[in-house]
Amino acid sequence: MNKCHKKLLAFFLLTLFSSTPLFAKTDNTITLRDGWVRETPPGVQNAAAFLTLHNSGTASKSISAIQCAAVAARCELHEHIKTESGGMRMQPVRAPLTIPANGTLAFVPGGYHIMLFDIKMPLRADTHIPLLFVFDDQSTFTVQLPVKSIRAE
Q: Are 114 and 127 in contact (CB under 8 A)?
């Protein structure tokens, strides 16, 4: 095998195994409610995703990772907290977020949300973006979030 073929094979294998957990199973107890992402103005490199996840199962589910490789360089769970001066500031979530058994977890403006950093293309209204949630038991759940217009209220 020549050097070019080896590099191509290595790239293919790295892409395959880094984007999907091995032996992942789709989680049928998680459902999406009211998900969306705001359209990005020209030149904006970051975006936020909002949604509600419902767990109809009998066991809680902790989010161990979110993957967004098709849309952005990376994504992170974030939250807004109140500062000592009374303002608000955003920070990464330090502990895993858990969806309780037969409960919900909401990602909303001013609360928990998913930050998309270094988006690969402008997000345009009436399109959709994929996100893959990976849970502590290695099960996965994929969502397609609609992009809402900047003018939407």
A: no
Listed by start position, the domains of the chain span: 24-148
Spatial distance between the Cα atoms of 41 and 143, rounded to a whole number of angstroms: 23
Q: For residues 14 and 35, give the distance between their C-alpha atoms in angstroms, rounded to a whole number.
A: 30
| Structure confidence by residue, pLDDT tens digits, 34-55 | 999 999 998 999 999 999 999 9
Say what the pLDDT of residue 16 is. Answer: 41
Residue with tokens 């992402």: 37
Annotate 109-140 with b (16+ C-beta within 10 A) or e (fewer): eeebbbbbeebeeebeeeeebebbbbbeeebb
Q: Which of 41, 53, 78 is nearest to 140 (CA)?
A: 53
Non-local CB neighbours of 31 within 8 Å, separated by 6+ positions? 53, 54, 56
DSSP SS3 for 152: coil
**Fold of the CATH domain 24-148:** Immunoglobulin-like (2.60.40)
Q: Which residues contact 35 (CB under 8 A, 6 or more apart)?
A: 49, 50, 51, 52, 143, 145, 146
